[in-house]
Structure formats: C-alpha cells, structure tokens
Batch of 3 targets.
Target 1
Amino acid sequence: MAILFLRIFIGGVMLLHIVGKLQDYDNYVLGFQSILGLSQATSFAVTILFEGLFAAMIIMGVGTRVASLLMAVVSAVALWEAFVEGMLSADASKLEFIYMGIYLALVISGGGEYALSNLFLDCKNVLKR
C-alpha cells in the first residue's frame, strides 16, 4: 500500500506542477531552452507532454521504473543546469532532491503489488520473494 500511495502522491504532484507551468505559460516559454534545435515553444510542449505521460504512467503503475528513472534524470539535469548558471537556490535544490529521492525509491521498488501492469502481465513482484 505504501508504494501505491507513493506512486499516486508523486504522480499527482507532477500533474499539479505541470498545471502550474501551463498557467504561467508565457513566462516559462520565454525562458525555456531549445531542445534538439526545436523552438522554445515546441520544446516546452514536448517536455510537458512527456512529463504528463510519465506522471500518468507512475500513477497507474505501468512502466513505473522506466518513467521514474527518466524523471529522476530530468530532476538531475535541472539541478545541474541551475548549478552551472549559478541560479541554484537552497529551496529549489531541496525540492529537486526530494523529487529525485522519490523517483529513485520508485525505480528501486517498481510499481508494487497494486500496479496496473500486474493485472495484465504475469510480473513477479520483487517484494513477494
């Protein structure tokens, strides 16, 4: 049950984070970095799309390890970019480290017993050994 709560909690927090970014769209797009030569607006849209997809995957328990690992990498990159630019505040770094810790806990634990993937696949749960 704890893994289920953790999945729903971090997925919900990420979805609220995405909604916050979309509400302040103009400010985020103007400062967003170009990814793979795409425009700032396109890069922002692709990032939001993938973050939303990964949050939904984590909530449902489908591909939890992969989605959590990718989100942990995103958090690490965000920390690194803020550090390099000298804009790493104590509050922002604490929040990113908390996100990264939760994602890494989900990478280790997987989706748990109540993951949607366990209903459709004959997955072995690591905790049932």
Note: The first helix runs from residue 2 to 23.
Target 2
Amino acid sequence: MRILILIINLAFSYEFTTFSEMTFPLGMKDDGTVVVGTDFYERAIIWTVDDGAMIIGDGEFWGVADDGKVSGSLKNNQGLEEAVIWQDGELTWLGNIPNGNSCDAFLSSGLSISADGSTVVGMGWQNCSVEAYAWNAVNGIVGLGQWNGNNTKAQAVNGNGSIIGGWAEANSGTRQSCVWDGDGNITLLGSLIPSSNYGEVTAISNDGSKIIGFSAGSGNNHTEAYLATPSADDYELTGLGVPNNFAGTNESHAFDISENNVIVGQYTATWGMDGMRAAIWTEELGTMVDLKDYLSSLGINDFNNWDFLKALCISDDGTIISGTALNSFGNWATYILDISDELGSNIAGDVNGDETVDILDVITLVNHILDSESIDLNGADLNNDGFVNILDIIEIINIILDN
C-alpha cells in the first residue's frame, strides 16, 4: 500500500510517501526519484516516483547510479547470492573475487555504486571469509585484499569510484574504519578516541571530501557517528554527537550525506528492537538531533502517531530523506520525506537564500538586526547562541573569507 500526503501552507510544504513493500531503503538516486532496498523477506525492491514499488527477486539492492544502474545481490541459478547490476530489467552478474568460492548461500554482494555508474563495490567470499572488491566494466571484480589476513568489506564509494570506504578487521576481530584509493591502497581512519580503533565507513560524498561513519565514541558516547575530512597527512574525525536518550548507552550512527553536508542516521533511544530513532545533523545544528524533533522545530507536527526508526538515505541537495518507520498501525514501512522548502537552501551563511554566501548576505543580516520585525530570516543565528547580532555577521564574513 502506498500513501502520499501533500501538505502546503504559508509556513512550509512537504510530501510524505510511505509504502509497506519495502522495509529498509538502502540506496537512493542522487535526485531522490529512485529508492532501492529490501524487506523482511530479503527480497530486492525498487521504488520509483512513476511506478511505485517493484519486487525484483530474492536478495537486496544497495545503490542507484545517476544512469539508473542498481547494485545489489540476487540469488543466481545455483541458489547463491551473487553481486549483480540491474538496469531497465536487464541483469549483469558480477561473479566473485579471484579464487573465491561460496559460503553457505553466499557468493558475493554488491553494496554500493558510484554516482556515474562506473564502479560497484562490495565483498566476495572465500572459504567463509570475506574480501572487499571494486568492479568496473573493463577489469571486472578486482579484490582489494584482506588486512593482515583478516576480513575486509567495501560498502561506500564516491561519485567516480576513486575513493572506496568500508572496514578492515583487526587481529582481535574489531572492525576498523578504512578507505582505499584508486590503486587499492588502504588507509585506516582510527576512531574518535585513541583507546579503540572500532568503526566503519558508511558513505562518501561525490567529490570524496567528506566521509561519514561511526566509531568508538568520545566522552560518554559508546558508539558515535563521525564526519571525516582529509588533513595534511591523514583524516580528521569530528564526532556528531548523540541525542538525549533512555537507552543506558549513548549510540549514534551516520548512514548517508548530501552534497550540502546534511547527514542522516540513527541513535538508540530506548532498549529493544524498536528502540532506535532516526537522527539528522546539519552544520547549523552542530550535533545530531532526533528527526521528529527537528521536523517539529520547522513547524512540521503531523507525525505524532509515527516513529521514525532510521534515516538511511538522503538526496544530493538535502531535500529528500528516506528510511524505516513504525507507522500508526505499529507496522514497519519505508518512508520518503521531501522537505524542499526547509532543507533546499542549507548553505551556512546563505541568509538571503540565493545559494551563495557573499556581501549581500551580510547586508541582509545587518538589515534584519536593525529591523527584525520587517525582515524575518531562517538560519540567521549562525553561531547558535540564541541571538542574532554582530557575532553572526562576523560568522558570515569568516565564511566568505574561507571560501
């Protein structure tokens, strides 16, 4: 069953789509028009704006390229899950890593695809251990190697396939966040605390400048979402925080990032299978917050009978979010939330909404400070101190100078 709700008023507009055929939306086309994933029965599913949800077969889909290629895994003629590309109803079976073989019902998995459709990344099986791989049409599957003989998994890739992310297993069995370059060289990212290297990379921005995932947390956080950016010699990890909760442990995870730096994920709110809640991070917020609370702060209060469990995908422009929800009947379902007005212009310092930060934003903010009753701005409190004043003007000037 598919439900579409369109809300328009003077304050905001949004579209809310939900359907029960898919439980976990695992990948989204950059413009938000295609969502792929799986359900409780482990069936691969594609949803499109025009056709709704379609069940393709046994397996799961994980990513969508701009040209419509879908990566994932499906059961082959031998009953084994094999990495595959689906496009316009046609299947391309990708095979396995060199010298690989099956383990139980698994051969290989396609876990992400680059935006340009050139590269699929995932993992292949060999003697019931796994190795990360990258696939392209010229070379086929190329193994990225194991780490000191231990398991590796690739589950994220940037827009042109030049940076791949995932995890590498330590001798202790701990998963460690890592990235591979185009030549297959691996770099471990570490974690938010020096005493533990636990973590995973979950997504990479198209230009490769932003990497997200989760790791051992900072402070009182046990597991914490992070944003990693290249530094002079390595990567610098920034913790994204954990919303207040009643779980007894502080845990957050980041799953996807837009090209204007909106990050979506989840946190553990209470114990139990339904205890996770969707979370969102923006530069203006500075920390992860509950998605429903964030919507409420925008004036969207129509979801009192819904629980947003996970926020798994976000469009490039940050306006469309998809994830898993517990609907008003208590059933798990996929939701697609389009907040075009509220997230469409999410550039820090762009107070006049022209998608550029320049002297015009300074002038607009000065006029707002001089006469706030005549000029109402969203996002004017750039330093998040609860006031709009000269300090926010300084913030805009620093943004302009940094650019």
Note: The mean pLDDT is 90.
Target 3
Amino acid sequence: MSTEATSRQDEHRAELYGVRGWLLLLCIYLVIVMPLIAILGAIGALQRAATAPALRGALVTEVVLELGLAILAAYAGWALYRVRRNAVRITKIYFIIMFALAIFGLITLLATAPVLSQPQDNVALLNTLRAPAMVASIRQAILSGVWLVYLQRSKRVRATYPKS
C-alpha cells in the first residue's frame, strides 16, 4: 500500500475518531436516561410493595435488579464517553442482558395467559396489564438489538475503539 493511501486512511480515521453523533447519543442514553428510568421504576415498585405485602419479596428483587442494571448502564456509558478499554465489550454485555431479559419477559407473558385466564375478572385485569408489559418488552428488545448492531457495524466505534 502506498504512503498516500495510508495517509488518506489515517485522515479518514481521524475524522471519525471521538465520541460524537450517535455514539454521544448512546452515552447520554446509558448514563442519564437508563438510570432515570430505573429509579422511576424502582420508586413505583417500592410503592407497589408497600400496598401489596404478598408481593414485597418479588418487588424488592425487581428493584435490586433494576438498580444493578442502571449502574451497569451508567458505567458502560461513562466508559464509552471516556474511551476506556473494554468499553464496547461492557456495553455489548449490557445490551445482551437487556435483550435476554426482554425476550424472557415476552415468553413469560405469553406462557402465563392460559393459566390466569379463568375467572372473568382476572381476564380483564390480565389484559389490562399485559399490553403495556408486552410493548415495554418489545421496545426493549428492539432498542437493545439496534444498539448492538450499531456497536458492531459503526465506523466511528471502530475508529474510536480500535481493539474492540
């Protein structure tokens, strides 16, 4: 390869280097948006735990899981923004976990329908709760999948994190 071609390639890489554009949006999403969503979800779960003592253990477990994932998201976003080693790998792990949880949630929602649909009151309650939960799971699966594809295929990510 000629030195001129190498020079052009280095210039192109330098243009793409840095946390800007979609990569910056991803950092903001991970550092700010996901922890806020987790905190709001945790507050809601703790309020439900106060009114439903029978579900307290499951809801506290949900809160711990949400806050743990929020910490992982914030760390991944911070590591991406600061161009830390293994930042892309940590972020991919986060999105793989979120994708798996979304699919697990969808499977659980689909599997519980026949079991709970006996009395008429339960059917109405189940249908009321099921639609938002399915939308949330589908949205999370799509978002996780899109960000995983972005991390895998982005020229900016490759230029900024060459060993990822």
Note: The chain has a mean pLDDT of 85.
